[in-house]
Amino acid sequence: MDYDEDSATDEAYQTCVSYIVEHAPVERDDTVVDMGTGTGTVAVELASKCERVLGRDINDEWLRYARKKTAEKGLENVSFDHGSFQEPNVEEAVDVVVTSYALYMAYDEDGEEALRAAIEGISSLNPSHLVIADKMFFGPPESRGDYETLPQMGVVANLLADAGFTLTDVKIVSGSVGVLVATRTSG
Ligand SMILES: C[S@@+](CC[C@H](N)C(=O)[O-])C[C@H]1O[C@@H](n2cnc3c(N)ncnc32)[C@H](O)[C@@H]1O
User: Fold this and answer.
1) pLDDT tens digits in sequence order for the chain, 187 residues long
2) 41 C-alpha to center of ligand 1: Å?
3) Continuous segment of H or E residues that includes residue 165
4) Where is the Methyltransferase domain (predicted)?
5) Which CATH number fits the domain that encloses residue 89?
6) Which amino acid residue places its CA nearest to atom 8 of ligand 1?
7) How far apart are CA 94 and CA 122, in angstroms?
């Protein structure tokens, strides 16, 4: 799929995926949700680090592609189903929710309140950690690149705090891309 080919050569994206794989607080017996899984890249990368990965997305074509890719790799602990930030469609107990390059779309569509609803949706799964690799502004306007409508990292951090999470790790990849690791502290 073109998306996989493009992201394979996207340095910032690859740095995010590597950071997730190396630093996300995922334990061997964890159940991890990859929200907005797309073609399942992050879900596949995390498969060997945990008990199960549940990929969720609103795009059924990409979910089909992710299933095919996972089957070809012989990964039996990764599954994909329809689900959204607002309605995750997850019944299992969840330890960690990871989301990569997907949350910013909520902000792009409907601003801070949509971002709040998306964060509340994944925090309703009661994970101990949220890992957000995404496009957001980490610096001053001159470091923004081509993007116009991205949230400031502080906005995302405040919404995470409102949902009961505290930032415990931040990896700034560029002025407009980075990884946030948030740990549940209340709720
Ligand atoms: C740019 S792709 C990123 C895919 C994947 N996470 C990755 O790292 O390659 C964004 C994905 O977010 C999904 N998405 C957008 N809005 C969503 C929502 N409200 N709930 C769940 N997924 C959503 C899209 O369908 C798409 O698959």
Assistant:
1) 788 888 999 999 999 999 999 999 999 999 999 999 999 999 999 999 999 999 999 999 999 999 999 999 999 999 999 999 999 999 999 999 999 999 999 998 889 999 999 999 999 999 999 999 999 999 776 666 666 689 999 999 999 999 999 999 999 999 899 999 999 998 6
2) 11
3) strand 165-174
4) 29-116
5) 3.40.50.150
6) 100
7) 10
* Ligand 1 contact via 38 beta carbon (within 6 Å): yes
pTM higher than 0.90 for the full model?
A: yes
Contact (CB, 8 A) for 54 and 79:
yes
Pocket test for ligand 1, best of 2, 10, 37, 63 (most atoms within 8 A of CB): 37
The residue nearest atom 10 of ligand 1, judged by CA position, is 102
Residue with tokens 């017996």: 29
Give every CB contact of residue 58 below 8 A, 6+ residues apart in sequence.
82, 83, 84
| 102 Cβ below 6 A of ligand 1 | yes
Identity of residue 60: D
**Domain residue limits at 162:** 2-184
Residue in the structure block whose two tokens are 């469609």: 89
Are 46 and 25 within 8 A, CB to CB?
A: no
CB-neighbour burial class of residue 21 (10 A; exposed 0-12, middle 13-18, buried 19+): middle
The two tokens of residue 159 are 């919404």
